[in-house]
Amino acid sequence: MSDIYFTPGPTALYFTAEEHIKNAIRNGVVSTSHRGQQFKDIYKACADNLKELMNIPDNYHVLITSSANEAWERIIQNCVRSDSYHISNGPFAARFEKVASQLQKRTHDLKLADGGIPSLEQIDVPEKAEIVTICLNESGTGAAFPLALINQIREKYPEKLIAIDGVSAVPVTPVDFTKIDTLYFSVQKAFGLPAGLGIWIANERCLSKAVELANEGLMIGSYHQLPEMVEKAMEYQTTETPNILGIYTLAKVAEDMLTKGVTAIRREIDYKAAILNIAVEEHPQLSHFIENPAYRSKTVSVIKTSFENSKLINHLKEKHIQIGTGYGKYKPEHIRIANFPTHSKEQMEMLVDMISAFKV
Ligand SMILES: *Cc1c(COP(=O)(O)O)cnc(C)c1O
């Protein structure tokens, strides 16, 4: 029996993924040229299915990257001339600021405690900053950035670009794309696919900004400049030879999620999050890292253990269940449990029963 992965990513494969991967091999998807019609059809299906699943408006481009890390670099290169503003409330959010400073931008950082969510008043974006970056679901701390606050930031600063790290949130969190300019994700989290593919969604404002910077003679990258990526994407093409198998599998899994229905997926996530939350609250040796339920992620639960976390992690491993350790400096004192669309209600009920029964 293979283990069930509740790790925050890479994680359990979406339950239909294996069949799609086998079909891809049978149908020559892994051998076909990325310049041929078969690939164009795959890219188109991927973009169309994601647009429908995530309610992405038509004037947003669906672009292919290697992963979320690449999107950090691309967004800074293509959308920032000199100054960027970052809401840093955890390790992934802070990485965006780091990339911007590595690319020699002047960064303005709203540094919050790990897991912190700012008030609108705390968010004071300087005149010069061209972009505001936000991590929707901090996979390191389990903090969920409120969608309503994103809308308020948009109202307060309509002329700034808003960039969202959607990695462990989408397609579960219903992002309103009309309130943001760009969002990116890697597929090995909530989509439950093998790692090695990122999706970068960007609107016309991002594109105009990149064209503007290029016209000023600024460097906007090499093989992945936004204007060229968009031009190619209109023809369902990429500059490089992309992860065709990954794009194919994402297209298929997005289609399966559409068939299931995003409402049904979200209802299941809510149920699984609720039973896990109750189990944590009722357990004398466990507690939530994010105390305010309104700011607590439903897709990645970060739980403090009053004992050495490896005791529980190893106990579950013996039962063929894998959960995550804490992230970064919290590695020995937290556990992290993913609640993604691939995790069934029955699997989560089983995990919750095992956790409830475990005492040190
Ligand atoms: C995992 C993760 C990333 C990094 O994804 P890569 O695939 O390693 O590039 C970025 N942001 C968040 C919120 C993540 O969970």
From TrEMBL:
Top-level taxon of origin: Bacteria
Example GO molecular function: L-serine-pyruvate transaminase activity
GO biological process terms on file: glycine biosynthetic process, by transamination of glyoxylate; L-serine biosynthetic process; pyridoxine biosynthetic process
UniProt-listed SUPFAM superfamilies: PLP-dependent transferases
Cofactor: pyridoxal 5'-phosphate
Recorded coiled-coil stretches: none
Family stated for the protein in its record: Belongs to the class-V pyridoxal-phosphate-dependent aminotransferase family. SerC subfamily.
Protein name in UniProt: phosphoserine transaminase
Higher taxonomy: Bacteria, Pseudomonadati, Bacteroidota, Cytophagia, Cytophagales
